[in-house]
Amino acid sequence: MDTHIKLLARQLEHIANQIGEHVAFEQVRVFIAIALHQGITLPDLEKIVDMGQTATARNVKRLSRYMARGEILGYDAVKTERDLRYPKRLACSLTARGKAIIEGVPSE
Questions:
Q1: What is the pLDDT of residues 4-31, one digit of tens each?
Q2: Which domains, ranges and CATH numbers included, belong to the chain?
Q3: Residue 44: Cβ-neighbour burial (10 angstroms; 0-12, 13-18, 19+)
Q4: pTM for the model
């Protein structure tokens, strides 16, 4: 069991370090949920991560790439696009950078 916990700790540390400096654990949770459920809509993501609408949207925004006050911000690890089934909803998926982070997660 100790070995499994050590591996999990290394995996979480890898993800957090690769996403970026000052990433919050709740952002790591959102990132992992999106990685597991590519194309997930924000309402469904809220249920999986057990966060409210505002907190979920804020974490997705920080994990994505956005512009504020003329400056490009965010971790560029996830992206949102209109859901083809429900155009009023946003679907979340990993960017190329996000996929690279997942591919680099240690398996041993």
A1: 899 999 999 999 999 998 999 999 999 9
A2: 2-103 (1.10.10.10)
A3: middle
A4: 0.92
